[in-house]
Amino acid sequence: MLCLRYCSILLVFVLWSTVDGRRLSLFDVRIDHYKVETIQDLVINTPRPRFSWKIRVLDNVSQRNVQQTAYQMQIQSIKITQRDNQFAWDSERVVSSQSIHVPYTGQNDLLSSTFYRFRVRVWTTNSEEPSEWTDWIQFRTPIFNLHEYLTANNALLWIGSTKINMNELRKEFMVPNASPIKSAIAYISGIGYYEFYLNGNKVDTSRKLDPGWTSYEKRTLLASFDLTANITAGMNAVGVKLGNGWYSPEQHGKSGYGPPRLIFILSMIFEDGNEIQVLSDQTWTGREGSIKHDSIYNGELYDSRNDRPNWARAGFNDSLSAWIMPESMPSPLNSS
C-alpha cells in the first residue's frame, strides 16, 4: 500500500509538470514602450522596434521563482493588395531571459506605411513546454522620412498664404463605390498648430497642440491617422484649421519661419487593389476663419461672425467668405 501511495503521488507530479507551460500567459505586452492593449491604432515610428512583456502564472498554486529561459517572436506583414509582397520573420527559439526591449533582429528593416502583426511565446524554468502564443497584435509604420517622400512626390506641396491669414483650408474628394475601402491612412503636419476635420467631425478629440514643438528647420513632426472606418463612398471633405503656435515670430523673435502652412497625404487602398491619393496642393481652398489672431501667451482674437458651421463638410457653399487658392510654400525643413 505504501508503494502504491508514493507511486500515485509521483504520477500526479509528472502529469502536472507536463502541462505547466500551458498555465502561463503573457501580459503588459509593449512595442517601443507603447502598451498594446490600450492603443487602438498603434503606430511604431522605427524600422527596428523593440518588444517587452511580462509573465503571469494562471493558477493559484505556489509558483514562485518562475523565470523565462527562452522566447520566440514572429512578425508578419498584413497584405493589403495583391501587389504587396508578403513579409514574415520568425526569431525561432532564442535562449534568453530578456523580456524588456527585446530587439527585432530581422535581416531587413520594416517598411514605412505598412501594416504588420506580431506575437510572442516563452519558455520558463517550470516546464519544457512553451506558453501559449499571444494573440496577434496589429501595428503599422508611418512615413519614416518625409523629406525623401516629398522628393519622390512632386505633386505634394506645403500650402498656405503670404497674402492673407489663411487659417482654414478645405478639400472635397470623391470616393467611388466600385470596391470597399481596405485601408485609408492620413498623414498631416500643420505648423504652428492644427486641428484636423473629416466630414465635419474632428478626427481625434484627444490630440491637442499638434504637432509638438521642434526646431522646425531640423525636424518637423508628422502625425498619421487610420481613417478606414470614417470615409464613405461618394463625396467627402477634409478641413484643417491652422494656428501660429511656437512657429510664430511672436514667440521666438525670428522672422525666418513665416506664416503657418500645411502638408497632407491621404492614401486610400481598395479591395480590388486600386489606390487613390488626396494630397495638399493648389486644388484646395483657404480663407481667414473666425480666429483673427492667436498666440500662446496672448490668447486669441475671435470674430464669431466668421463662423461657418459646415465648412468641413462635403457640399459646403459659402457666399459670404472669400475662399482662395493657397500658395505653394517652402518646406520648413532645411534639406542641407
From TrEMBL:
**What InterPro entries does the entry give?**
Alpha_rhamnosid (IPR016007), Bac_rhamnosid_N (IPR013737), FN3_sf (IPR036116), Ig-like_fold (IPR013783)
Q: Which residue range or ranges hold the Bacterial alpha-L-rhamnosidase N-terminal domain?
A: 181-320
Keyword Flavoprotein applies: no
Q: Quote any Pfam family the record assigns.
A: Ig_Rha78A_N
Task: Tell me which species this is from.
Answer: Didymodactylos carnosus
Source taxonomy lineage? Eukaryota, Metazoa, Spiralia, Gnathifera, Rotifera
List the keywords (alphabetical): Signal
Give the signal peptide range. Answer: 1-21
User: Can you say what this protein is called?
Assistant: Bacterial alpha-L-rhamnosidase N-terminal domain-containing protein
Keyword presence, Signal = yes
SUPFAM superfamilies, per database record: Fibronectin type III (SSF49265)
